[in-house]
């Protein structure tokens, strides 16, 4: 597991309460995904998601107000009220996803105890980072480096990228460079020539490249 302890991120009151409550009962818990990515970009997250090794039934027992948002897939929403204003946070159990028949939702999931396995199922490296104050930034797939280099890679492609030389990495950064605002889009409207260059440079077929990099013609 890659830890970058020097990074200090903000965890607001209610997400912190969720994490602290889970930890007090012996569970692990982290903020994860877009809220981590946005803070590393210097942006204010619109919401905070939490990942934990606690099972959905454990989460429901620990908090007074919960909603079975996606309990089949391990997600329970925890609800707080402040000045009569509701605040809702999704808490999801570490999981490994089954087959995606509709491209969005897995047909089934398997709950796991390893944070790394949960991060591995996510889409892009920049969205596969987790954080809590005790451990720091968990960056198993080098998402921070990709974020700093304005590169957007799918997790599957990251495993291919690890075998590249520094020259190949530099070439890929040039071809796949994006503005921070569009980082989740991957290559914006790539031409066939660009795809062929990428495929040739990294010894991967154009079809495989499109599959792992989320590139569309």
Name a few traits of the molecule.
217 residues, Beta Polymerase, domain 2, eight-stranded mixed beta sheet, 34% helix, 20% strand, globular, disordered C terminus
Write the SSE topology:
Elements lengths: L2 E2 L8 H12 L4 E4 L1 H7 L8 E4 L3 H7 L3 E5 L4 E8 L2 E9 L1 E3 L11 E3 L3 H6 L9 E3 L3 E3 L4 H6 L6 H7 L4 H10 L16 H10 L4 H8 L4
Parallel strand pairs: 3-6
Antiparallel strand pairs: 1-10, 2-3, 2-9, 4-5, 5-6, 7-8, 9-10
Structural account:
There is one protein chain. The chain is α+β, with helices and mostly antiparallel strands and 217 residues long. The protein folds into two domains: 143 residues, 2-Layer Sandwich (Beta Polymerase, domain 2); 65 residues, 434 Repressor (Amino-terminal Domain) (Orthogonal Bundle). Helix content is 34%, strand content 20%. It contains nine helices and ten strands. An eight-stranded mixed sheet has the order 1-10-9-2-3-6-5-4. It has a two-stranded antiparallel sheet with strand order 7-8. β4 and β5 form a beta hairpin. The two termini are 35 Å apart.
- How much helix is in the residues? 25-40%
Terminal CA distance reads 35 Å
SSE order, as H and E? EHEHEHEEEEEHEEHHHHH
Computed Rg: 19 Å
Structural class: alpha+beta
Gross geometry? globular
For this structure, the CATH topology of the largest domain is Beta Polymerase, domain 2
Q: Which percent range describes the beta-strand content?
A: 15-25%
Q: What is the level 1 CATH name of the largest domain?
A: Alpha Beta
Count of strand segments:
10
The total tally of domains equals 2
- Helix run count: 9
* CATH evolutionary superfamily of the largest domain: Beta Polymerase, domain 2
């Amino acid at each position: 597991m890659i830890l970058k302890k020097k990074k200090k991120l903000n965890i607001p009151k209610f997400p912190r309460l969720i994490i602290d409550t889970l930890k007090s009962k012996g569970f692990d818990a982290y903020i994860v995904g877009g809220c981590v990515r946005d803070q590393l970009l210097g942006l204010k997250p619109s919401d905070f998601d939490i990942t934990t090794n606690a099972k959905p039934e454990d989460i429901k027992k620990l908090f007074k107000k919960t909603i079975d948002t996606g309990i089949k897939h391990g997600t329970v929403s925890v609800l707080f009220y402040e000045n009569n204003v509701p605040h809702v946070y999704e808490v999801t159990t570490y999981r490994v996803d089954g087959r995606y028949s509709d491209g969005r939702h897995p047909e089934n999931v398997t709950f796991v105890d390893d944070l790394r396995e949960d991060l591995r199922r996510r889409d892009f490296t920049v969205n596969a980072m987790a954080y809590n104050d005790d451990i720091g930034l968990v960056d198993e797939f080098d998402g921070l480096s990709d974020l700093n280099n304005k590169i957007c890679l799918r997790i599957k492609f990251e495993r291919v990228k690890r075998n590249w030389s520094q020259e190949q990495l530099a070439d890929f950064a040039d071809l796949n460079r994006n503005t921070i605002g569009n980082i989740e889009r991957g290559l914006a409207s790539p031409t066939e020539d660009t795809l062929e260059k990428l495929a040739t440079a990294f010894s991967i077929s154009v079809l495989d490249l499109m599959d792992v990099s989320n590139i569309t013609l």
